[in-house]
Inverse folding.
């Protein structure tokens, strides 16, 4: 029964999380590949799982920027597996460096502009009701209490609608 805005934001937050997970997985893979093949394989698993779930959850549902990194990490996982089969470790390394460098700005942008964004402090945390101008610090929609200091009390100040009435 959650508010659709909150649900949409939650979906975006989860998508950002999987994008970050797959990004970190790929980064750890190339960092570890020259030192510890076991650790690199573990990191590749993180990239694969994060990439797969992130792709399944976001592809065609959210804009490109949310699933680009998970999809790209799946290609990287495939490449890394093929390269390890043919024992060309330097390709895993350099492709990974390219991945991390190339997606550094997109991943930062995702967390700056999309992650945990559209829920303002004057909206009920539980149901999304706009809590403006209430006299009691309780959401009239779902009964959840809130901090009145964080919600502007519109009953104290004339609004644009009131001006038009006068
Ligand atoms: Zn509420």
């Amino acid at each position: 029964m959650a508010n659709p805005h909150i649900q949409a934001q939650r979906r975006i937050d989860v998508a950002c999380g999987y994008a970050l997970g797959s990004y970190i997985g790929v980064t750890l893979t190339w960092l570890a590949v020259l030192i510890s093949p076991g650790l690199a394989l573990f990191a590749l698993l993180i990239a694969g799982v994060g990439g797969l779930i992130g792709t399944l959850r976001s592809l065609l549902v959210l804009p490109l920027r949310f699933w680009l990194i998970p999809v790209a990490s799946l290609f990287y996982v495939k490449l890394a597996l093929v390269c390890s089969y043919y024992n060309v470790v330097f390709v895993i390394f350099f492709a990974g460096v390219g991945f991390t460098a190339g997606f550094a700005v997109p991943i930062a942008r995702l967390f700056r502009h999309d992650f945990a964004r559209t829920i303002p402090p004057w909206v009920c945390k539980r149901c999304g009701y706009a809590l403006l101008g209430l006299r009691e610090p309780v959401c009239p929609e779902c009964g959840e209490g809130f901090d009145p200091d964080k919600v502007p009390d519109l009953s104290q100040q004339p609004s644009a609608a009131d001006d038009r009435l006068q």
